[in-house]
Amino acid sequence: ATVERARQAKMKYVYQGHIEKIPILEEILRDAQVDAQRVAFIGDDFTDVVLFNRVGLSFATANAREEVKRSAAYVTRARGGDGAVREVCEILLQAKGIWPEILRKYEIHG
């Protein structure tokens, strides 16, 4: 289901079930030619903290381990699997000033 949803959303990079995440991050940064400080990452477990320390903005989900929450720049209100990624996307779109344009597109006032 994850792979299919990623395909529908036209995501280029989808990795599942990996414990060693640093090489994957480095591969993506190289391929995409993006500086790590321009990357946001969301996670919930110990294996994610090493990436929190290597990217520009880190998010932990509401149901992340407490140690992971303390390591993140921001903790979502939503739990993983229950809207946390959507919450992060909306935060990023708001920070970039794109959110009002999206609301207008869908004729949402407010």
Structural features, described:
By secondary structure, the chain is mostly helical. Helix content is 45%, strand content 9%. The protein contains six helices and three strands; from the N terminus they run ααβαβαβαα. It has a three-stranded parallel β-sheet with strand order 1-2-3. 14% of the residues are buried.
Overview in brief:
The chain has 110 residues and is mainly α. The chain is 45% helix and 9% strand.
Which structural traits does this protein have?
single chain, 110 residues, mainly alpha, 3-stranded parallel beta sheet, 6 helices, 45% helix, globular
Q: Classify the helix fraction into a percent range.
A: 40-55%
Number of helices: 6
Sheet having the most strands: 3 strands, parallel
Computed structural class: mainly alpha
Strand order of the largest sheet: 1-2-3
What is the CA-based Rg, rounded? 15 Å
Q: What are the secondary-structure elements, in order, as H or E?
A: HHEHEHEHH
What is the strand tally?
Answer: 3
Oligomer: single chain
Q: How far is it from the N-terminal to the C-terminal residue, by CA?
A: 34 Å
Give the integer mean of the pLDDT values.
Answer: 96
Unreliable stretches covering 5 or more consecutive residues? none
